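If it is no trouble, can you show me the amino acids of a protein and the tokens describing how it folds?
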Amino acid sequence: MASVCPSTWVNFRNETNGGAKPFLYKGLLPVDENCPNYAKVINSISKIPRATTDISQENRIRLYTGEDRRDDLLVELCRNLPYDLTPDTLIRNVREFSGSDTFSLIINNFERISDELSADLGRFIQSFFGAEGMPLGGTEQVVFCGNYNSTAFGIHQGYEDAFLCHFGPGQKDFYCVDAFSYCSLTRSPEPVFCNSDTFNDVLKIADKYVLEPGDVLFLPAGIYHVGRQESFSISIALPLYTYPHSRFLSHAVLPALSSADLPFDEEGRSELVSFSSDMDLVRSYSGYANRTVRSWAESKISNYISSYWHTLKSNGGWELQSYSEVISKESSASSERFEELKLGSLVTLHPPFLISIKRSGSDSDATPEVYYSSNCLKTRVDIELAETISQKLNNDQHFVIKTNEELKFIEELSQLGKIEVKCYNAEASI
């Protein structure tokens, strides 16, 4: 799938009232056989690992029949999915295991299951990132698949901005209502389910958006919403994880630095503490904590944040599996080489991954770091050359290797992640 034209987002602020109002982009995504479509999603669902005994946790999958969560059925259901899965066989399998004619299957981090959709939707969301910026926590793919009549969560409030990409084949009716109107009617911020007397009352005051294959709905944070449909369909949500700085600091930065700088010490000892006063302990630990935090604040926090940003960008904006991997992957390059790389090779990046180069501050002697596919190494080539090549490859351009220095840089990239070698141009190698 080609990248969405950047001009798509020129009027984003006006169309969404500064990101506060839903907006439906009709036919934004092509859904032919060479682009994202429901058949590709179904095919990828059939590849979910079957060996695990804890599918709901390891793959973050949820199964609902009506509004009842049935994770107890997931292991057997996934183990018995045919590899030539279709909507009809999926419906039949769920009916066999649950006894229910309707269901919803929700799968988080689908970008880790389907390389193809990771690439296709990666290009789409990167076009938005280029225009509006990348969220601190990145994004993920959340698949909503099934023939359910109404979203299992009821009419509920979202906590992040999101794009809902609809692939069909069925139509989906999506209802949205602002928080003030919702709470004024229901007298509560809690979700309203379809068996409630209030459910239809909320739908009457909600804005209705009809989603057909290829449509993309922007859904702002704070909006109450529910999806309804009469037949099988698949949608993929791309939530924008704009975490507050306090949350990111407490849940990502400090734990990662603590793990790296404050390892568990089985042999070390502290002194016995006075039985009559806490002051000796307070002085001892306050001094230790102050020294540690001061060293973090002087350089390590900024280094971590910088490395995190480059890692996230190199991963195409898809959220990282672990915040600690930003530290642990700084020298994680593989020694493997692509044998077909040589002068004259024509190469492209493997989408959705991007190259991101981190210059090491004001120290001119420091070796720059190259990030690709969430991995990192210190480059051996001239930084200006590396940035020139990276810019071309990041812009979806082919690059022909003409010099040994260029070959050396492409070999470095191949250690970090997959590089597409398109062909060999003998003339370029002369």
